[in-house]
Inverse folding.
């Protein structure tokens, strides 16, 4: 029954934009939306229950990263975590230097935070990536100056799925005593990440990208990193992020982490297999198609394609008529189709770039759904090409 209700919405291949909250997460949150409504800062038992639930979620999340619970700070999602890391580290280390290094393919939460800092007088270097979306560590090395205080490079890209060489970039940063932040919103809970293995100082994540609720996330801050409060007020989150905690959200995120890590290896294997099946099928069955991003250094569920002489927006409308939810590689601006800055940064040829479509899988995606989506794509692309 549950299955039918869900499938009525069609074939959902936009799991990068957001994911469906799991039933387990919903059940875990339920008591904290009703009977267990206590404020975690109060002393009676309702408050105690809320506080315990928050700390349990913090422990679960910390364990998933090989971090300490005291290094996990709850926020209202990925955008807030990125803003906090970038603006507050820049501010705190202003006396040491005013230079930040990032990439051209970051999420807007990072790019626009950097642009804001430029208005305040900071210098920001936006590094180019190669045609597969990889930021070569040598480019970072060459961009570092004595003024550099922060390097921010995403773990996995949200448009084209490329996984960056985070270990090498982090090692470079550490060698030069520069702080390293990674926006891991697309990678966390999808692939294993250990802050013991990777030299990461700050890491952003968001629950709604891994079957948790919207409006909640966290920032991992390595012990010893000096960072000012992002929201001033009460003593919540050790005085760093004031405001009564989003108890149901935090509990839901904890549950989503538990579920994601319980069957992670199996899910990665299955999702990667289905993803590769989709890639092979499209490249083989649809003429003049190309895959964007790296063939193997790629998030398990991500595919991004560009089709020659196709208007992506028109294709998305036709897909929607077939009940298929995908997304474009371009943002429509006053009726004029613009190429996404990520697709531009990868140097996708001009006759391909406007025909960019992203289809992203989840653990729930089936082979039948992939087959249906490919059939629809084939038919609709032929139609748009007038064949
Ligand atoms: C979705 C996303 C964000 C923003 O997260 P929200 O929780 O929606 O604010 C940031 N970075 C990346 C890479 C994302 O995919």
């Amino acid at each position: 029954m549950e299955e039918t209700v869900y499938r009525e919405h069609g074939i959902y291949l936009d799991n990068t934009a957001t994911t469906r909250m799991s039933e387990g997460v919903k059940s875990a949150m339920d008591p904290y939306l009703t009977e267990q409504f206590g404020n975690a800062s109060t002393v009676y038992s309702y408050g105690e229950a809320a506080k315990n639930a928050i700390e349990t979620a913090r422990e679960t999340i910390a364990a998933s990263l090989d971090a300490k619970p005291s290094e996990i700070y709850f926020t209202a999602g990925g955008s807030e975590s990125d803003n906090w890391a970038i603006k507050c580290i820049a501010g705190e280390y202003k006396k040491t230097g005013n230079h930040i290094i990032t990439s051209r393919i970051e999420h807007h939460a990072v790019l626009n935070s950097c642009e804001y800092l430029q208005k305040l007088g900071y210098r920001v270097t936006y590094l180019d990536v190669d045609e597969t979306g990889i930021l070569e560590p040598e480019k970072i090395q060459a961009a570092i100056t004595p003024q550099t205080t922060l390097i921010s490079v995403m773990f996995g890209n949200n448009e084209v799925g490329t996984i960056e060489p985070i270990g090498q970039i982090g090692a470079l940063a550490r060698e030069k005593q520069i702080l390293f932040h990674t926006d891991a919103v697309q990678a966390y809970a999808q692939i294993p990440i250990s802050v013991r293995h990777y030299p990461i100082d700050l890491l952003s994540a968001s629950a709604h990208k891994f079957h948790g609720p919207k409006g909640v996330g966290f920032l991992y801050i390595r012990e010893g990193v000096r960072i000012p409060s992002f929201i001033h007020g009460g003593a919540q989150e050790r005085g760093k992020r004031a405001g009564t905690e989003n108890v149901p959200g935090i509990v839901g995120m904890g549950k989503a982490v538990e579920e994601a890590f319980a069957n992670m290896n199996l899910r990665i294997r299955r999702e990667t297999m289905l993803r590769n099946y989709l890639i092979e099928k499209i490249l083989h069955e649809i003429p003049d198609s190309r895959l964007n991003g790296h063939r193997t250094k790629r998030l398990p569920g991500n595919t991004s394609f560009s089709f020659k002489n196709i208007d992506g927006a028109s294709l998305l409308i036709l897909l929607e008529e077939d009940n298929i939810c995908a997304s474009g590689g371009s943002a429509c601006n006053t009726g004029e189709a613009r190429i996404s800055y990520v697709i531009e940064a990868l140097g996708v040829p001009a006759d391909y770039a406007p025909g960019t479509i992203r289809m992203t899988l989840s653990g729930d995606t089936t082979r039948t759904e992939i087959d249906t989506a490919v059939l629809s794509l084939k038919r609709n692309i032929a139609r748009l090409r007038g064949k």
In short: The CA atoms of residues 202 and 221 lie 5 Å apart.
